Amino acid sequence: MLHSAGGPSPQDPREPLVGPLDLEADVDDALAVQAVAFGLSDEEIAVRRHIVLRHMKSPGARALGARTPEGRLIGFVYGMPNDRTQWWSTVVAGYLRAAGCGDWLDDSFVITELHVLPLHQRRGLGRRLITMLTDTAAEPRSLLSAIDTDSPARHLYHRLGYRDLARNVHFPSAPSPYAVMGAWLPLRRS
């Protein structure tokens, strides 16, 4: 859309702003988003707080946040280059090897978490967050895990080019099985 003067129109002032997120400083706001989006208890939030803070000290870890024009965090994504010694990688390694996809653990950028408040879902915000984060990855491909159900999140990942590498993956203490998904970068645009 162009102004009558021929320049681009200004950004819609109601549109969420997506940009770098200091996840260490904003960990509590991010976990509040995750708690609502993913249905976490206070105990689970406390455990995840330590995990997030540890992850952000990993080489190459980075995060993006989506904020309302008033500055309220409504979504976030973070990830890092895969490290085979990290807990997630050690859990999924056997499943990926059994599926003939063990090499995906090398030269991959892992999407660790992606969450958007339900009120702001289905508006392209999750897509913006994940594509903007992976567009900056030096690795040629990306990995993530998602609950192994027919969900809007899994539909989004498939549309972006992620494919199932291993299914029925069981993480200790997780009540539901997961799917490990992988995609070549850059992610597909639709």
Summarize the structure.
This protein has 190 residues and is an alpha+beta fold. The protein has helices spanning 27-38, 42-55, 87-98, 125-134, 152-159, and strands at 17-20, 62-67, 73-81, 108-116, 141-147, 163-169, 178-184.
Structure description:
Strands 1-2-3-4-5-7-6 form a seven-stranded mixed β-sheet. Residues 1-9 have low confidence and may be disordered. It has helices at 27-38, 42-55, 87-98, 125-134, 152-159; strands at residues 17-20, 62-67, 73-81, 108-116, 141-147, 163-169, 178-184. It has 190 residues and is of the alpha+beta class.
Question: Can you give keywords for this protein?
Answer:
7 strands, 190 residues, seven-stranded mixed β-sheet, alpha+beta, 5 helices, disordered N terminus
Uncertain parts = 1-9
Q: Topology as H/E string?
A: EHHEEHEHEHEE
Distance between the termini: 20 Å
Task: Please give the order of strands in the largest beta sheet.
Answer: 1-2-3-4-5-7-6
Number of helices: 5
Mean pLDDT rating: 93
Set down the secondary structure blueprint.
Blueprint: E1 17-20, H1 27-38, H2 42-55, E2 62-67, E3 73-81, H3 87-98, E4 108-116, H4 125-134, E5 141-147, H5 152-159, E6 163-169, E7 178-184
Parallel strand pairs: 4-5
Antiparallel strand pairs: 1-2, 2-3, 3-4, 5-7, 6-7
Helix pairs in contact: 1-2
